[in-house]
Amino acid sequence: MFTIAIHGGACSVTRSELTEEKEKQYREGLEEALTAGYNVLARGGSALDAVEQAVKSMEDNPLFNAGRGANLTSEEKVEMDAAIMCGKTLKAGAVANVRNIRNPIALARAILEKTENVLLDKDGAMAFARDHGIPFEPDEYFVTEHRFQMLQEAKEEEESNNVGKGTVGAVALDQEGNLAVATSTGGIANKKYGRVGDSPIIGGGTYANNRACAISCTGDGEYIMRAVAAHDVFCLMDYKGLSLREACEIVMKEKVKELGGGAGLIAIDRSGQVELVFNCESMLRAWRNERGEGEIAIL
Q1: Contact 276, 34 (CB under 8 A)
Q2: Which of 3, 73, 167, 185 is labelled catalytic?
Q3: N- or C-end of the chain: fewer Cβ atoms within 10 A?
Q4: Residue 210: which CATH number?
Q5: Is-catalytic flag, 167?
Q6: Do residues 198 and 190 make contact, with C-beta atoms less than 8 angstroms apart?
Q7: Domains in the chain: how many in total?
Q8: Helices (H) and strands (E) in the chain, counts
Q9: Would you say 39 and 297 are in contact if contact means Cβ atoms under 8 Å apart?
């Protein structure tokens, strides 16, 4: 049995904004990423490889707020966060506030495999990337007209939160019964002071453990971190025996929502059950199992 689920961001699209053309583009982007990860699993590949490939596909797609097409900081730069975790070994790799890295998730994977560390940030993470041959791109590769306009709107409204939400992520169960998760983000528009969200925080926005589940979160990062959302889903299952659905509903629709956060998550358990739960108007999402069952949805 194998299954994969992905998300392209929660609370980032409203019904009124979703034109027919935009919906078509999002669906195509989700399908491409889903297929990239699914094909790894279908060939007998690892869940870790599958989630990395799915996320890399979305990082390469300027539609999504990760990699190319990431949000711009107040300085009109791109600063990206990412994390990846293996449910079998509990090893993880993460990066925060990196610039010019084509695929931050690939850098996170290298940290997982080649160091004893979990999280590297900014200059140190980029030095590690250069030492290990991780591809870089110039500033102009990352800057899209859409994100530039979003930054101007955020500056006009003097906002640095809740503007241009969006994060990409993937969770998977492979044929060996192992779970994995990957999450990547460009953060919030008009970001200041080196802010870091939940995506690279193990247990916050990203967590995988073969004992129960793998979870990737998206949305208001501060609230996700305060709720320790990803690890809380695991704890409710592992310690209290709740089902994946029960745990996800409690964390996202009660705990995170009561704090005031608009957010969502994708999760998968060791039996291949998938849950895609969000407490706002939309979450770009898709999933597919070895029987070909699944869906692609937005609202």
Answers
A1: no
A2: 167
A3: C
A4: 3.60.20.30
A5: yes
A6: no
A7: 1
A8: 10, 12
A9: no
